[in-house]
Write a structure and sequence with these properties.
The protein is mostly helical. The protein contains eleven helices and no strands. α2 crosses α7, α6 crosses α7 and α7 runs antiparallel to α10.
């Protein structure tokens, strides 16, 4: 009986590992999703996997400036997961986001998580939904940080994405000011200065 128990347990573990490995392979597709900004100093566009890495590092560096105390481990988990829906739904600029696109992203995330063990799928889906809702301190800060690299890419890259999509200074200030200040007043104070300077240089109109 003991041998049979361990055999069943081992088979269960192997099935879980198989599902996790399938998930790991599937999320490689995030590397082929191309957002709308170029990394500083490069002419190519970044991919969404690079963006996920960048926002995680940014959150780690800026956590002390959050308006409220945050659990940085949960924040980083959210930021690692937050763009998985783009594998199926694709990326769209934040200034043109829609409810239809959000629904498609959630469906994509749910599809991805189906290969994971149920306990992991449940945990990660709840984290993804928490990020999307943006109501907890962790989610608010994560959404704040999600906006930082695209702004810096444009500030240090000639405003390439703003110009390409005809984004106005008012749009940039309104959307980013609301989201970033909600998570970190001090971070927005610094970025606002940089955005005003970018506008004065003609990068943003």
């Amino acid at each position: 009986m003991l041998t049979e128990y361990y055999g069943i347990h081992l088979q269960g573990c192997l099935n879980e590992i198989k599902g996790i490995v399938e998930f790991i392979v599937e999320i490689e597709k995030l590397k082929s999703v191309t957002p709308n900004t170029k990394p500083v100093g490069l002419e190519r566009y970044e991919n969404s996997a690079e963006h996920s890495w960048h926002v995680c590092i940014s959150a780690l560096m800026l956590k002390e400036f959050a308006n409220e105390p945050v659990d940085i481990n949960r924040v980083i988990k959210m930021l690692l997961l937050h763009d998985f829906g783009e594998i199926d739904a694709g990326d769209t600029i934040v200034y043109a986001s829609s409810n239809t696109h959000s629904i498609a992203e959630q469906q994509g995330v749910e599809r991805l998580f189906k290969t994971l063990p149920e306990y992991l799928a449940d945990e990660y889906l709840q984290l993804w939904l928490e990020f999307e809702a943006g109501k907890t301190a962790d989610a608010i800060f994560a959404k704040t940080i999600d906006r930082v690299p695209p702004l810096l890419h444009n500030i240090h890259g000639g405003g390439h994405s703003w110009k390409k999509h005809n984004i106005s200074k008012q749009q940039v200030m309104s959307l980013n000011g609301d989201r970033i200040a909600k998570g970190s007043h001090s971070l927005w104070t610094e970025l606002e200065k940089q955005l005003i300077s970018a506008a004065e240089q003609g990068l943003l109109k």
